Amino acid sequence: MAWGLLVLAGALEIVWALALKQANGFTRPWPSLIGVSIAMLSLVLLGLALKHLPVSTAYAIWVGIGAFGVAIFGTFVLGEHMSATKLLFLALIVIGVAGLRMME
Q: E strand or H helix at 79, and its extent?
């Protein structure tokens, strides 16, 4: 259950980051409200997961899911540039997250 909450919290981190991108520096009310609301929900789910998981692992996985997801979404949906170096570092995030998960 805790791992499921953590994965959901990480997925919501992707959503709030993308909503804030659309909020254009908090100048657009609806994307701003969605971004902040989803961020709060993501933090609540992270907090619930932390009741059963070590913070060192859970936080790193939460951030990793968000960072990887936003980078991939930005590349394939928003048309942001993806270099070989950026792809290498994203792969290292995935390897790190998988390694942390296997250690628990």
A: none
Give CA–CA dist 64/79, Å, rounded: 21
Q: What pLDDT digit, counting tens, does each position of 48-68 carry?
A: 999 999 999 999 999 999 999
Q: Would you call 75 helix, strand, or coil by DSSP?
A: helix
pTM, to two decimals: 0.89
SS3 label, residue 104: coil
What's the rounded Cα separation, in Å, for the pair 83 and 57?
Answer: 28
DSSP one-letter string for 15-34: HHHHHHHHHTTTTSHHHHHH
Tokens of 37: 């609301």
Q: Which amino acid is at 22?
A: Q
